[in-house]
Amino acid sequence: MIQISDLTLRHGPEALLEHAEATIFPGHKVGLIGPNGCGKSSLFALLQGQLAADDGDVRIPAAWTLAAMAQEIKELDRPALDYVIDGDRRLRDAEARVRRTEAEGDGEAIAQAHAELDEAGGYTAAARAGSLLNGLGFKPEEHRKPVGDFSGGWRIRLSLARALMCPSDLLMLDEPTNHLDLETVVWLEDWLKRYAGTLIIISHDRDFLDQVVDSVLHIEHRRLVAYTGGYSDFERLRAERLAHQQARFEKQQREIAHMQSFIDRFRAKASKAKAAQSRIKALERMEQVAPAHADSPFHFEFPPPPKAANPLLSLDQVSLGYGSKRVLEGVSLSLAPGDRIGLLGLNGAGKSTLVRALAGELPPLDGRLTSSRGLQIGYFAQHQLEQLDGQASPLLHLQRLAPEASEQSLRDYLGGFDFHGDQATGPVAPLSGGEKARLVLALLVWQGPNLLLLDEPTNHLDLDMRHALTVALQGFEGAVVTVSHDRHLLTSTVEAYWLVADGQVRPFDGDLSDYRRWLSERNAPEKEDRQGGNERRETRRNQAERRERLRPLKNRVEKLTRQVDEASQRVAELERTLADAGLYEAERAGELAEVLTKQSEWRQRLEGLENDWMEAQEALDAAEAE
To answer: Domain ABC transporter: where (predicted)?
Structure first.
């Protein structure tokens, strides 16, 4: 087992860990979490022998084989397949012995060397490495390409494949999902579930941690705090601790009670409604999550979006691509105010291409893309991190957007994104990837868009910032289009999905569980063979026609659901106002009467909306049953 005893670890004069204690048993799968800069990667370097402890002791069994993702790749001329096989050091040593004994001509030694190579899996190594590359999204024709031909994100995938290739007792993965798409994350989850050794993962992907780990080590106040279970269990258990320390948690519970009251009414009236159940689960999940982040350094919200005509954007037979290469053909879709769309599709299918076109950065090759009056787009993409002015400070970046605002108000705003003191006034260049992503998001939120286009917004963000972004998006009243491998962000903020596949974009009838099934079916070629081409085309045509019939009904249900939520929140606010004893004093009689009138009006409106929602949901259920 791994034993960490009274450990102190410093980065310069600053202590990352002080008197930290932890025990990790063989075969356990552990998520190592904590805010950016708290010492997670330094602890990994210590476990690998790359750093020395300032005090205390770390013991790892001497016989254990360790494997870890390299953060930098030097063998740029090495073919990808060979680079991955290099991760199995025992295998490469066995191959070297074979070459050496064959050069020496000793028959007995040659036989022994070949036996050792067989025992090391030498004759299946290329197939195993190829399987890893395929699982991580590499095409077969790319297996022999030099490592240097791949972009930075794909090199990280090669580093991950190399670590998985090693038959290890301890596997350490630092942010393995950062440069993966959704389907590759699902593949990695399945692989890690089968891994028999001890696993330690640094990750800010809560759903990934829930799927893979059985315990959590949280770096908090320079200590290691252990929790049993996945990330959701950690949130619940830590919330119970924080509940005794934070008065804000009690206030939060009162607000959740109002939400729960609405859930109870909602469930009683439509217990079988798919949309109702989805929203109930999201609200119940919020009840568990919120307390664990009560001490988060992040607090921000989107301003009310400016009004714009409907549709915000419309695409009519649009084709997209780069030069002579066409990525998407004949796209005809529209975005309405308040739409919340998640884009699904395999890597390279064209999700980012579509988002760039919606953002106005990629003109259509064919067709027509029309923007409405009053459209204001907020676009987040990874390349924008590199477009920041490295010599300017976060404060100066914001002052360029708002020259009329006072410096103090801008400092207060940046504080909500955890930019304080010298970090708010110092140059951007030395900031980490996560800090730059926070700054880009801060600039985007400040501009008050009515359409958000988010292309992998959670890359480099820690769990607290991801939670703050999720909460802010839940309160955003404008339209959102999101590309993300973070399933929690999608399920918490998205109401409908578009599937980008086979050069087309179409509404996807289902949720992420349905998409996972779609991926499984797509990856089963034998199923394709069993179904004739004509029959399959007919099936697709029937499914498309059914989706078109259901779409207006679904849109009405979703619109009414949002209106019911808004009315319910308004009623809850008025009820909280009426709970103030001071409101019933004689001099406030006029104010009391006004609040009571508004309460009555909003209750009537809520009741009418709920009745409309029930009728719309029943119509949708009847249409789906046909």
So the answer is: 2-246, 313-527
Which of 423-432, 445-454, 599-608 has the least mean pLDDT? 599-608
With tokens 């504080």, the residue in question is 415
E strand or H helix at 341, and its extent?
strand 340-344
3-state secondary structure of 310: coil
Question: Residue 313's closest CA among 334, 330, 331?
Answer: 334
Mean pLDDT over 398-414 rounds to 92
Note the Cα 33 to chain centre separation in Å: 15
Q: Which residues pair with 507 in a beta bridge?
A: 498
Give the CA diameter of the chain: 107
Interatomic CA distance for residues 15 and 8, integer angstroms: 7
Helix (H) or strand (E) holding 11: strand 2-11
56 neighbors 19 (Cβ within 8 angstroms): yes
- Bridge partners of 508? 497
Nearest to 142 by CA among 85, 80, 227, 199: 80
For residue 501, which phi and psi values (nearest 5 degrees)?
-160, 145
Written as one string, the DSSP assignment of 472-538 is HHHH--SEEEEE-S-HHHHHHH-SEEEEEETTEEEEE-S-HHHHHHHHHHHT-HHHHHHS-HHHHHH
Q: Which of 146, 157, 169 is nearest to 64 (CA)?
A: 169
**Full 3-state SS string of 342-392:** EEECCCCCCHHHHHHHHCCCCCCCEEEEEECCCCCEEEECCHHHHCCCCCC
| β-strand pairing of 55-59 with 29-33 | unpaired
Query: Which residue shows structure tokens 């005509």?
Result: 309
Q: Which of 424, 426, 432, 490 is nearest to 461 (CA)?
A: 432
The rounded distance, in Å, linking the Cα atoms of 461 and 469 is 10
Highest average pLDDT, of 329-333, 513-517, 570-574, comes from 329-333
**Does residue 419 contact residue 394 with C-beta atoms inside 8 Å?**
yes
Residue type present at position 228:
T
Domains present along the chain, CATH in parentheses: 2-237 (3.40.50.300), 247-294+553-625 (no CATH), 313-523 (3.40.50.300)
Span 151-162, average pLDDT:
90
152-191 core/surface letters (b: 16 or more CB in 10 A; e: else): eebbbbbbbbbbbbbebbbbbbbbbbbbbbbbbbbbbbee
Report the run of H or E that residue 22 belongs to, with start and end.
strand 14-24
Strand, coil or helix: 54:
coil
pLDDT in tens, 488-497: 899 889 989 9
d(CA 251, CA 235): 18
Q: With bands split at pLDDT 50, 70 and 90, how would you rate the model's confidence at 555?
A: confident
* Phi, psi of 70, deg, nearest 5: -80, 135
**How many C-beta atoms surround the C-beta of residue 258 within 10 A?**
16
Helix (H) or strand (E) holding 406: none
Quickly list DSSP for 234-298.
HHHHHHHHHHTT-HHHHHHHHHHHHHHHHHHHHHHH-TT-HHHHHHHHHHHHHHHHGGGGTT-S-
The structure tokens listed for 181 are 């798409």
